[in-house]
Amino acid sequence: MASITEVARLAGVSTATASRVVSSSDYPVSAATRERVLEAARTLDYVPNALARGLLNRRIPVVGVIVHDITDPYFAEVVRGVEDGATAAGYLVITCSSERDAERERSYVRLLRSMRAAAVIFAGSGFDDPQLNAEMGRHLAAMRAEGAAVVHLSPHAMGEPDVSVDNTAGIAAMVAALVALGHRRIAFLAGPRTLFVARDRLEGYRRGLADAGIGFDEQLVVRTGFDREAGALAVDTLLAGEVAFTAICCANDLLALGALAQLAALGVEVPRDVSVAGFDDISVAAMTAPSLSTVRLPLRELGRRGFAHVDRALAGEPLAGELMPTQLVLRESTGAPPAAPLPTSLATSRTGGAR
Amino acid sequence: MASITEVARLAGVSTATASRVVSSSDYPVSAATRERVLEAARTLDYVPNALARGLLNRRIPVVGVIVHDITDPYFAEVVRGVEDGATAAGYLVITCSSERDAERERSYVRLLRSMRAAAVIFAGSGFDDPQLNAEMGRHLAAMRAEGAAVVHLSPHAMGEPDVSVDNTAGIAAMVAALVALGHRRIAFLAGPRTLFVARDRLEGYRRGLADAGIGFDEQLVVRTGFDREAGALAVDTLLAGEVAFTAICCANDLLALGALAQLAALGVEVPRDVSVAGFDDISVAAMTAPSLSTVRLPLRELGRRGFAHVDRALAGEPLAGELMPTQLVLRESTGAPPAAPLPTSLATSRTGGAR
DNA sequence: CTGAAAGCGCTTACAG
DNA sequence: CTGAAAGCGCTTACAG
What we know:
homodimer; alpha/beta; 12 strands; 46% helix
């Protein structure tokens, strides 16, 4: 592979001059010389070595994005947004699926550090794990000290996100919508207890209830994972319980999808017997049966602004946090509450009903 | 950020010795010295500079994956598989969404080259664009000459994929399944004309028909895109046409999802009025209403084997192409053909029916 | 077992 | 406008 040395030799100039031409610095070079260098570069199919450049700048135009799982549509969308911004600025993006595993996350950050990535963006929420966070804090402080940008798109142990979506207001709006439909007994699938973003969403649920003057009932809250299996399991938990509910508000769409599937499997009709609401508006939400009422998050835009934030941080510009609004999307999975709430109505119909 | 020089100084040894310890080469170093170096590295929070290492090896442990769009579940799944393998081997993965745009693809490959990525994996199919392919061929030949691995997971202009899924057999199997249900007039949404993988799938359709002794009718084939919008549009095209059909076989799931949505919007019931089949088995396929009959592709495994192939290529091991089998998944969207085929039955019911 | 030195490919003061 | 030279942080023959 041709190096700048060979380009310089072919053009009959010093490497300094060749560098000035191909790196498109604004250093003055005579037109004739410039042309000779360009010609040589073309002939040799010269591609500058980003590693050598990076060694000098102590930074390479690469941004790492840490996600929980790239196959989760939420994260794929955010990553795409980051990529949109990054590509325009000449950066490449490295995706790291942490599986919500502390060890993996740390090991990715270390790798990114070793590579002198210009920035690391945490797309997912942090978890409340003091030991991990202490070590992670050290790593991130070191990265910042080395001039890299660190941006959070979701709440985390070290504080508020830099760019984010208004999770609390979003869930509160959904609760308000359910209340407007007539619901008073609203169950909440809360997501993982240790995830900061899940706490924000739970807070939104509390606020929505409070706004409507409805009391908070701990028994209506199911702590779960953040995927479909967890949603299905949570439905079983609720139905096995004693507390009445007419709607299930979920902390994300995947939970709602799992709930919908399990409800269908049990012969519970949505929204006739119970309403179900999601959160995120991933693309599947519009395609299920019934289609899912949810809250739309500007995920791709979140990724774009995340990169814009990185760009500004790297340029040394002053930074301000951003909180993006969400949008209610009511589809088929929500409706008026049934005459008799679950789980009682189910037990009755099962005992007394046909089949 | 601490360099090996500082670690060496603190440990009171030469950089050569320090390097031998921290790079875990098998070069002999006395136990006492080794311990002193390790201690110094720990104290200084030393993280080796991958750029400096890469400059020496003319390669950095990074693999680029070129996909059409990371938000397409097909590609997210493949990338995840690559990541599984890459992480285990200490590599990072860069994702590049080309949007099926020649210019973007080329620019990504150039960036990857400049970064001395150890490998580039093309997850998506190549397109039949002679000019692009000529230039791309040059780039790829150069990369290989520089010692990088180039792996294709789908057919492309330069030939057969290195690791792939048996697209042709998969579609043929679905056609056979539809025939077994009683269908003879099977429409095919073929995907983009210029995409090599779409050609393989079309070939599968032809083969399936031939196996069943059914003649090929060009009018039943709709050339489209590969996304949902294209699927919806294709349904309109078929319904506006004159040719009878009782089933729609799609070249991928996204097309089938679009078809399902459009059919539902038009009041055509699936599978009562028409059967619909997809291809890929992305996770949404099981959640639609009706759930989608499709062909399961081992996407994540495809990604894993893709990386394994890279690993072997980099180690200079002999390589053999791999073709992975697919699996038929019959769900609710396929059934026996209706008494009267579309589009005639629709016209009739519209003219004569109530409402 | 240890170290001095060269060199990977670039950029950038510095001198002219 | 041009070039000689140093140096980014590492690894690896080579010498001892």
